[in-house]
Design brief:
Blueprint: H1 2-31, H2 39-93, H3 98-184
Helix pairs in contact: 1-3, 2-3
Length: 185
């Protein structure tokens, strides 16, 4: 019976020592949830980031197009307004008909009326692009945090295994010493 008590004490000591080690490992595992933080999850997160980045590139192109449309419309209105003075002179001299001037003025007014719509489309495209940029930044941050947590967890796991191997080696050496002491006694 005394042998069993000795083994019981040894088991309690080992349990206490590995319990503290187990707490550290369990904290690492809690920080790095192995069921959700798998390679497939990382790939999914990376795919989401790629998809969002592609949408962001498309949004940049759409914004550039809308901004270009606004610039072209402004230039068209400016040149038409400059030409209006010349056309008034030609009308006075009889080189141009009044219907041509009326058509020209109607087009100028239509372009001026279109400007708020073009500006709104540009603003909407910019807002969409900025929102996508925020999403891409957030996904990039999540991926970086995921990788950092995975690295920490792998280091903690490696450390725990090394500690466990060290404890096992110590136990084996202690058993050898006990065996040798029994032979010498």
């Amino acid at each position: 019976m005394s042998n069993l008590n000795g083994w019981g004490l040894t088991a309690r000591l080992i349990t206490k020592h590995f319990g503290a080690l187990g707490n550290r490992v369990s904290e690492a595992i809690a920080n790095f949830d192995p069921e959700t933080a798998t390679e497939a999850d990382r790939d999914r997160l990376a795919d989401n980031l790629r998809s969002a980045a592609q949408k962001l590139a498309a949004a940049h192109a759409a914004f550039d197009k809308e901004a270009g449309d606004v610039v072209k419309l402004r230039q068209l209105i400016a040149t038409d307004e400059q030409a209006a003075g010349t056309l008034a002179e030609r009308l006075a001299s009889g080189k141009i008909s009044e219907s041509t001037i009326t058509l020209f003025c109607d087009e100028l007014e239509a372009n001026k009326a279109r400007m708020p719509q073009e500006l709104q489309e540009e603003a909407d495209a910019k807002q969409y692009m900025n929102e996508l940029q925020t999403i891409v930044d957030a996904l990039s941050k999540q991926l970086a945090e995921f990788d950092a947590q995975a690295k920490k967890a792998l280091q903690a796991l490696s450390s725990a295994r090394a500690q466990q191997d060290l404890q096992q080696l110590r136990a084996e050496r202690q058993a050898q010493l006990t065996g040798l002491q029994g032979m010498s006694g």
